[in-house]
Amino acid sequence: MAEYKEAPAGASAGVKLMNWIDNRFPATKMWNEQVAEYYAPKNLNFWYFFGSLALLVLVLQIVTGIFLVMNYKPDASLAFASVEYIMRDVPWGWLVRYMHSTGASAFFVVVYLHMYRGMIYGSYQKPRELIWIFGCLIFLCLMAEAFMGYLLPWGQMSYWGAQVIINLFAAIPFVGPDLAILIRGDYVVGDATLNRFFSLHVIAVPLVLLGLVVAHLIALHEVGSNNPDGIEIKAKKDAQGHPLDGIPFHPYYSVHDIMGVAGFLVVFTAVIFFAPELGGYFLEYNNFIPADPLQTPLHISPVWYFTPFYSMLRATTDVMVNVLAIIVALAAVFNLIKGKSTGKAKIAVLVAAAIGIFLLKTFDAKFWGVVVMGGAVVILVFMPWLDRSPVKSIRYRPDGVKYLYAVFVVFFVVQGYLGVQPPSAVGTIIAQIGTIFYFGFFLLMPWWSQLGTFKKVPERVTFKPH
Question: What is the tens place of the pLDDT at every residue in 166-180?
């Protein structure tokens, strides 16, 4: 049991209250450990805004979601009308709804940028592997939460988008059809689907998401923040045990992040008040039409933040599967001729390649499209072990790596654009090239991450006060 401390004589009422709380709950201790005395690198730049912005948007989504639930009815015959009621009759309901819908897109914007910052500065490397894994799990939870929430307005795109995505699970061999029925709760998307998606969207997934966010932050504060130089600031400390290149998070970065929050809110409110649908990218025009199981929209596509992965799914055709089989065969032959591994290892690679080609030719392209779409997200988890670079930050890597990352971003954005557009022959070819590049970027990372001449990493972080 902790020692009971008395408040100083003549202390103010506020000090006495905090002393009373601290004797029963470690409020001041937690504040000092996690904020006031948590030392962060002094050279963090604008890329480090997006972590705190993600936390801000998470709170925004929870608060606006609570107010929306007060008037929403999870019933297939009433859901669309209840959303219209929120938009037209509930005082400020239109604002709450637009804050929630725009917040969903804003969440993915800041999370994508936050993850990209982790990639370019090597924030997934030792000792931050677990932070990265928690972050990838948060991303997966966020995608599940967004997908389930997308069904709730019960518009045309909500209904048919859910119909398409859920039917993809039916492509899984043996268990697919039963799995699709389990997810839908019925043989078609209907009232049962809406109710279970509502329950998961409002209760189950947010609880898991909040738990992962807490775990992410605890892991971060245990090992400390990375920085643009990729240098561990805990290696050099002063007489008091404080990092020489670190500064207390509060007040320095708490004030620093306020500037990022202010800039974000300017853009966020501008979108809400002037372009909440953002030309149909944030809210599709078809979703302002009630769900009609008898009338399929001319073009069905998910919301923009899913479209890079949806584009990879559509790109996985029979031709693409044949190309993948050829790539696997060539890789096995190259390893046999040029590989430095032992004879047994080469034989094992040949056997694995033969099994892979057999599986590629056995199952249809629709199944492999689902595998590609899921694998595009799951492969991110393995980055700490795929990257063999001797330095963390892109600042000290060869210039070729910077161009490679730039091409990666271009392909990812193009994939997202193609996923919104109707299928076309040219678009499919570009998407297939982008898909091969995406997986090649990660699967060949153990090789290319060691190539080139690396710059010398300084002993102390580089910092220019401003």
Answer: 888 888 888 889 999
Cβ atoms 138, 216 nearer than 8 A:
yes
- Which of 273, 271, 291, 267 is CA-nearest to residue 282? 271
**Is 216's pLDDT higher than 90?**
yes
Q: What is the C-alpha radius of gyration for the chain, rounded to an integer number of angstroms?
A: 25
What 3-state DSSP class applies to 255?
Answer: helix
The span from the CA of 4 to the CA of 23, in Å, is 6
Query: Which distant-in-sequence residues (6+ apart) come within 8 Å of 465 by Cβ?
Result: none
Residue 157: partners with Cβ closer than 8 Å, 6 or more residues away? 150, 284, 286, 287, 297, 300
Count other Cβ atoms within 10 Å, centred on residue 266: 9
Longest dimension (CA), the chain: 84
List of long-range contacts for 113-117, beta carbons under 8 Å, 24+ apart: 113/47, 113/50, 114/50, 114/51, 114/53, 114/54, 115/139, 115/380, 116/409, 117/47, 117/48, 117/50
**DSSP structure class, residue 72:** -
Helix (H, G, I), strand (E, B) or coil at 40: strand
DSSP secondary-structure letter at 311? H
Q: pTM for the whole thing?
A: 0.93
For residue 422, say if its preceding peptide bond is cis, omega within 30 degrees of 0. Answer: no
Residue 182, both tokens: 């389990």
Distance CA 189, CA 164 (A): 10
* Alpha carbon separation from 432 to 116, 276, 316 (Å, rounded): 22, 32, 7
The strand pairing partners of 247, in sequence order, are 40
435 — pLDDT class (breaks 50, 70, 90): very high
pLDDT at 230 over 70: yes
List, in sequence order, every residue forming a beta bridge with 248; answer none if it has no partner: 39
For residues 420 and 438, give the distance between their C-alpha atoms in angstroms, rounded to a whole number: 18
Asked whether residue 23 carries a pLDDT value surpassing 90, the answer given is no
Give the integer Cα–Cα distance in Å for 200 and 184: 13
Judge residue 150's burial from the number of C-beta atoms within 10 Å of its C-beta, 0-12 exposed, 13-18 middle, 19 or more buried.
buried
Assess contact for 202 and 196: CB atoms under 8 A. Answer: no
The DSSP call for residue 276 is S
**Rounded mean pLDDT, 259-266:** 95
